[in-house]
Design brief:
With about 70 residues, this protein is an alpha+beta fold. It is about 30% helix and about 15% strand. Helix 1 crosses helix 2. The protein is elongated.
């Protein structure tokens, strides 16, 4: 469910996202990366196998948008 909410938020913001394994060699071509789950929400990835990833304004926007989504009562 969390991944679906994040993907919907990304579409609404016009941010392209994809879900796939990432090798360290691909990091030089990435604008940013994030992980998501129900416990942590959206978390930026700063490094993959020792390769530093840039701080992404798009990931920051996605994090803020996801955090602002209304919760649902249990």
């Amino acid at each position: 469910m969390t991944a679906q909410l994040v993907e919907r938020a990304a579409v609404d913001l016009g941010i392209p996202v994809s879900t796939r394994p990432v090798a360290a060699a691909a990091c030089t071509r990435m604008a940013g990366a994030f992980t998501t789950n129900a416990t942590t929400g959206v978390r930026p990835v700063t490094e993959i196998d020792g390769v530093h990833l840039p701080r992404s304004v798009l990931v920051d926007r996605l994090t803020e948008t996801y955090a602002a989504l209304p919760g649902q009562p249990l």
